[in-house]
Amino acid sequence: MYAVNQLVEKSLSNRIMPKFLRPLLLLLAVILLLPTASSAQVGGSAVVFLKIEPDSRASGMGNAGVALADNASAIFWNPAGLAFQTGTEAAITHSTWLPEFKADLFYEYLIAKHHVPGWGTFGAHLTYLFLGQHEGRDAQNNPTGTFRSYDLATGLSYGVKLNERFGVGTSLRFIYSNLAPGQTVGAQETKAGVSTAFDIAALYRTRKFAMGETMKGEFSAGFNLANMGNKIQYSDNAQADPIPTNLRLGYAFKMEFDEYNSLTLVTDFNKDLIHYSDSSSAADPFYKAIFTSWQPIQVRTNALADDEAQYKSLSVLSQMTIGTGFEYWYNNLFALRGGYFYENPNNGNRKYMTLGAGVRVNIIGIDFSYIYAEQNSPLANTMRFSMLVNFAK
Predict the structure, then answer these.
(1) CATH number at residue 15
(2) Most buried residue, 12, 43, 59, 331, by CB count within 10 Å?
(3) What is the C-alpha separation between 250 and 324, in angstroms, rounded?
(4) Cα dihedral sign, 274-65-49-42
(5) Where are the alpha helices (DSSP H) in the chain?
(6) H or E, element range at 387
(7) What is the pTM of this model?
(8) Ramachandran assignment for 140, one of left (phi > 0), alpha (psi -120 to 50 degrees), beta (any other)
(9) What number of other Cβ atoms are within 10 A of residue 7's Cβ?
(10) Containing domain of residue 305, as a range?
(11) Which residues make Cβ contacts (< 8 Å) with residue 96, sequence separation at least 6?
């Protein structure tokens, strides 16, 4: 777990963080970075909760949704999708996070969008990840009280059409990461990390086209360059870590067989845009990393060894995650979903199937997703529940 150890060692440098926080930081790194014990990408980021796929619908399709983005959840997947939406909608997602750990962690995501004729569609979101309650201790192992750890982000989004087929969008968010505040060691005090970020996104959709006598098709392609912002720090010194800037791009292909049955195929590719300089071991600022991160990296394949033979080069393509899936709708009332998520074994090694279902009754929509993974995976048996209210109906 080289990236995990590197994150912990950086946080503990200069004795700013007391030893009692090492298990907490290890837990947070495992929870958020989710690497395996055998391999991980060199370099990492803080506040990786920003990358947790929030809604149950896209989560049931292999975590793919950048080119679909046809409801309020476009705020996460692709804010340009808001440009093609009208009306008013709100949704909430709840998940018991990493149930295999039995650590009482949970994740909440609240979103809303509203269309303003002549202006475009506006959205807002609130993301909350609860990481438990912990007992603080100083360098002499004396109790200092308990504290609650959580990550929170809130922000606004906007999407507008440039023409009938092409839309653009953006999101602005405020990030507050309260991991272990108010702990003092020497002259340094830990504090909550604060940062801001923004997204730039675009989406193209074709007109519906004929595919035989009764069948129609529609193709979409989009991208979202997300979480561009300043580094975040948790102490009074200059130590800071990058936030998880990433690029998501993909396509969606919808086939309407008749007025009752439709099938949509989706695929997303996701690349972290984080780069650490070999000379200084410091992360590049986001505006530089979006260019410098497109190169092979060295990864450590054996966490127990430290010789050059235990490193290998990972290509740019191998640094990407791939999510692909499908969604079947009957009469726009009932949906079945499935998908697969893949990450290179030397870059985290997350591999799992996803299943999902959804129903729409009047203005209410309910969605459910489930991760089917190996039992030793932290994500195994993760379930998400989402409820959506479309006030336009």
Answers:
(1) 2.40.160.40
(2) 59
(3) 9
(4) negative
(5) 2-12, 21-33, 56-59, 74-77, 286-292
(6) strand 383-390
(7) 0.84
(8) alpha
(9) 23
(10) 2-390
(11) 105, 106, 382, 383
**pLDDT digits over 138-155, tens only?**
666 666 667 788 999 999
Measured at the CA of 220, the angle between CA 215 and CA 221, to 5 degrees, comes to 155
Q: What is the pLDDT of residues 329-349, one digit of tens each?
A: 999 999 999 999 999 988 888
Domain count for the chain:
1
The dihedral of CA 182, 227, 278, 297: what is its sign? positive
**Residue 199 and residue 78: Cα distance in Å, rounded?**
9
Encoding tokens for residue 175? 């990030």
What is the DSSP code (8-state) at residue 283? B
Token pair recorded at residue 302? 């054996």
Distance CA 315, CA 292 (A): 14
d(CA 53, CA 48): 11
Predicted pLDDT at 235: 78
Single-letter amino acid, residue 313? S
Strand partners, 314: 297
